Amino acid sequence: MFINEKNATRYTLYVMLLSFIGRFAIGKWTGLGIGESYYYGGARILSLSYFDQPPFFMWVSGILMRVFGETSLVLRLPALVSFFGTSWIIFLITKKLFNKVAGFYAVLFISISGVFVLAGTWFQPDAFLMFFWVCYVYCLIQIIFLHKEEVKANLKTIYYWFVLSGIALGLTILSKYHAIFLVIGLFLFISTNKNYRHWLIHPGLYLSIFISLLFAIPIFIWNYEHHFASFLFQGSRALDGGNFKIHFDWFFRSILGQSLWLLPWIWVPLIMELIKSFKLRQVNSIYGFCFWLAITPIVFFTIITLWADLQYHFHWQAPGYMMLFIPLGKMIQEKLEGESKYRRIIKRWIIGSVAFTVIAFSFLAIHMQTGFWTWYGPKWIAMHTGGGAYDATMDGYDYTDLKDVFSNNGWLKDPNLFVGTTKWWMSGKVDWALKGNKDIICFNQDARNYIYFSNEKNLIGKNAIVITKGEDPSIKNVIPYCDSLKQIQGVEIKRSGVSELTLNLYYCKNFHNIENLPYTK
Asked: Rounded CA gap, 15 and 90, in Å?
């Protein structure tokens, strides 16, 4: 290949720029997904923290939204920019641990790996998590590999990097609770390698952790004020409500899902690098460092699927896999500089991987906005993704038709009318469609953030439009909270003029009985 130490930096920047342009196009021209629409409520209503996530990504997008307006691109812009930064820091880390050429291939492959394309585009906490995660790692490698005699000679520099690492770790905590795995991984690395155990008694390490906890104060305050709701919610997901029945189907679904999200032909080499790093962890500190920071989130979020139904959250292991792209870059460099038969295989693998990602994500983005596959491809394939009832890509399509109905009926301007839903994710889709112009009550025990976004007492005596996707049996849960519940004309959500799904609307008259709402604050 033509990549060498002289041009690797330049070509890395080219890859990063092309990746940014592609993700920018997706971010601008596709609607918000279920999770993104849901988090829009947090960006709209700024708080010290939130029910299921730390606040940083919602703070940043919320501020931008107030300056530049409420568009999907504005909400996603921090993710787009932060992933650009993540790629650059990965290059710097790999360059320092190995060389520039390895850094180029590390950046290339993380830029075309499915889950990282999405995480670097969507309005989710993961983009900031990854950025501050690698910032923390970058700070660590400036000092962690120093010998004992070098520590005393570079005391000022060491404390400088420990302070910066504390800031990076604190911002990681503010981004997502995954930050705990960074600390665990670091302590496992230094405690299992005798050459680095001296860090266990170094004050700088604990100063770094103390600084990070200062950043976490808003999270602790919010949880204290709300009965530790966020901690209890995330803990219950790991424990699955205390039901410890073993489910091997969930476990194998998790492994399969991780491979599909990363793309199988990238996932397998990453697993091979994980195994290699494990074998070399005692004789090569670089591989040991990468192993311990990678293994903790991968193993934890995979093992707990034996008893906890994490559903399709296959991206929770992603920060661990991110660390494996560093040795993967080194492996690719070595193969390309080795025997000719390996060079041919690696070149085809690189070209095929890049081509697949570009074609597949272009296809999905275009279909998501136009629905063209419904016209030209076997419709059953698209419908199967939604359980046979609808095309699942509609989950990433905005319900603009709903806003038109609200405007035409004068409901948006009616001060005595609010909105109800029966699912937390539907609350987000409706909230985004109406651009936060209506109070929303989610008539479900699992209402998540929407427990806190509206004051039910202020809505007593008002009427509501309750919205469900299709026929939803849980609509009966709304009946105890109004004098009458009557179904009215529904809304057809159309994509390129084709009706893709139906929203059922119900008129709830005289909202009351709030003391018996299914959730508690």
From this structure: 13
Sheet containing strand 498-509, edge to edge, reads 440-442, 417-421, 463-469, 498-509, 484-495
Separation of alpha carbons 24 and 84, rounded Å: 11
Interacting residues of 66 by C-beta distance below 8 A, sequence separation 6+: none
On whether the CB atoms of residues 395 and 33 are closer than 8 A, the answer is yes
Cross-strand bridge partners of residue 494: 499
In 3D space, the residue among 301, 290, 356, 357 whose CA is nearest the CA of residue 328 turns out to be 290
* Whole-angstrom distance, CA of residue 306 vs CA of residue 254: 9
- Please report the DSSP string for 372-407 in residue order: HHHHHS-HHHHHHTTTTSS-GGGGGS--HHHHHHHH
Q: Is 455 helix (H, G, I), strand (E, B) or coil?
A: coil
Quick: pLDDT tens for 313-365: 999 999 999 999 999 999 999 999 887 778 999 999 999 999 999 999 999 99
User: What is the chain's mean pLDDT, rounded?
Assistant: 94
| Cα distance between the two ends of the chain | 59
Q: Which residue has the tokens 């699955």?
A: 240
C-alpha distances in Å from residue 282, one per residue of 308, 323, 420: 33, 18, 58
DSSP string, 181-203: HHHHHHHHHHHH-TTSGGGGG-H
Helix locations, 263-317, DSSP H: 264-280, 285-303
> H helices then E strands: how many in the chain?
22, 5
Q: 3-class SS at 243?
A: coil
Whether residue 443 contacts residue 422, with contact meaning beta carbons closer than 8 Å, is answered with yes
Q: What is the distance between the alpha carbons of residues 292 and 274, in angstroms, rounded to a whole number?
A: 10
- Cα distance between residue 424 and residue 445, in whole Å: 9
Share of the chain above pLDDT 90, in %: 85
Nearest CA among 364, 352, 386 for reference residue 121: 364
